[in-house]
Q: What sequence folds into this?
């Protein structure tokens, strides 16, 4: 059971009954919601199956998933069907799935004014270089997408290994932020 300390009922969704059977809803945010957040959504839905349910959204969605993101997911046998570029407003609207954890995966989204999230989910920044912004050959672009996927995979594996239901809110917040520093380019080289 997550302890709330002196924070009271305003702590939100993470204070709902937590058991090992609990599924945590996670939202990955990026400006365009066409590459990094899409990769993260697919990865967590695979690696966190049964414990996590992932979504993604963007502040200014591109309207389509980057073709190289789809190609990479398919090549890695990760789910790519039903992925779409969408606004983060979908997840702040009435009737949306309650979100427990939110991760920004791009520096732009981390600095933007976000919607008021129902339930006040925990947030952390997990900045990943934008593979869709890479210029060069197709091989260089493909390498950038693979690098982003590896960095996200490192962080998501750390997330899925956390004993979330036994951590107090402050400890969990610190661990989520620490994970955001893991799997950087230097570690993935």
A:
């Amino acid at each position: 059971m997550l302890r709330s300390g002196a924070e009271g009922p305003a702590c939100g969704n993470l204070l709902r009954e937590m058991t090992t059977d609990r599924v945590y809803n996670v939202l990955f945010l990026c400006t365009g919601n066409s590459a990094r957040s899409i990769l993260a959504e697919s990865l967590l839905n695979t690696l966190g199956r049964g414990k996590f349910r992932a979504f993604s959204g963007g502040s200014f969605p591109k309207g389509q998933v980057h073709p190289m993101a789809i190609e990479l997911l398919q090549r890695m046998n990760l789910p790519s069907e039903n992925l779409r570029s969408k606004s983060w407003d979908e997840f702040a609207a009435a009737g949306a799935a309650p979100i427990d954890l939110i991760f920004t995966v791009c520096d732009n989204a981390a600095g933007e004014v976000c919607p008021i999230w129902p339930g006040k989910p925990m947030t952390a920044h997990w900045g990943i270089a934008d593979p869709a912004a890479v210029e060069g050959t197709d091989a260089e672009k493909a390498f950038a997408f693979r690098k982003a996927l590896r960095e996200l995979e490192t962080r998501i594996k750390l997330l899925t290994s956390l004993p979330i239901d036994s951590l107090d809110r402050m400890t969990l917040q610190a661990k989520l932020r620490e994970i955001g520093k893991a799997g950087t380019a230097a570690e993935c080289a």
Remarks:
- Residues 10 and 105 are 26 Å apart (CA to CA).
- The beta strands are 24-30, 52-58, 101-104, 122-125.
- Residues 1-19, 185-189 have pLDDT under 50 and may be disordered.
- The domain at 21-188 is CATH 3.40.50.2300 (Rossmann fold).
